Amino acid sequence: MIIAANFKTNHTRESTREYLEKLDSFLIKNSIKDDVFVFPPFTALNRYAIISDNLEIGVQNAYPVEKGSFTGEIGLEQLSEFKVKNIIIGHSERRHILKESQEFVAEKFSFFKSNGFRIIYCVGEPIEVREKGFEAVMDYIYSQLENIDLNYDKLIVAYEPVWAIGTGLSAKEEDIKEVLDALRLKIKSPLLYGGSVKPSNAKEILRIPNCDGLLIGTASWDVDTFCDIIMISKLVAEE
Ligand code: 13P
């Protein structure tokens, strides 16, 4: 399974270092076989001395360019310095708060694909679409897959309903199942769920047939809580 921590705009360079040290030794001590990703803020990037084979660092965003004049952005040259090869693209906070269009999201996808990045590609509907029913939800999600190469071998897709992100209110299991089942018809890559995942609901979500893992915001910011969820995923995988 894949368990990913999206720090968003949280943690400092120092607290990220402490977090990763603790997480790394937890994974080694418990022989965790999950693929575990941590996406810290840019300021906390470093060449971390991570020992666990399956712990990887990634970025929450980057500009689709080697280098150039894009004030406030970072490109491939800056990521290469830290040997970062994992990126989140299409997160709802970038689509809705930062107004990234599908065209731009797809441009980022192509750029980082052509540079061999593992891409966690996010899709998910806002509440007004969810209220219209499943068909409207899938139409919305399919529009977020436009011009995305779904056969890319380093693709991971995360279904994150916008209304479930950071609200404490996860989607219902049957709603998650319905969307993941529909995505599975088009996508062979791992499918994740994200949106108010916490230790109390992780087991039920991970048991959903087409759910290959979790993308976690709030509950991942505390390393002990994140380790609890990883432990739950280990138990579900062993069931
Ligand atoms: P929360 O876990 O805080 O709902 O955030 C989910 C998310 O956006 C992960 O990318």
Offer a quick outline of the entry:
38% of the residues lie in helices and 15% in strands.
How is this structure best described in words?
Strand 7, helix 8 (199-206) and strand 8 form a beta-alpha-beta unit. The two termini are 13 Å apart. The protein has a single domain, classed as TIM Barrel, CATH 3.20.20. The mean pLDDT is 97. It has an 8-stranded parallel β-sheet, covered by helices on one side. Helix 8 (199-206) runs parallel beside helix 9. The chain has 9 helices and 8 strands. The chain has 239 residues and is of the alpha/beta class. Bound molecules: 1,3-dihydroxyacetonephosphate.
Which characteristics define this entry?
239 residues, alpha/beta, TIM Barrel, eight-stranded parallel beta sheet, 9 helices, binds 1,3-dihydroxyacetonephosphate
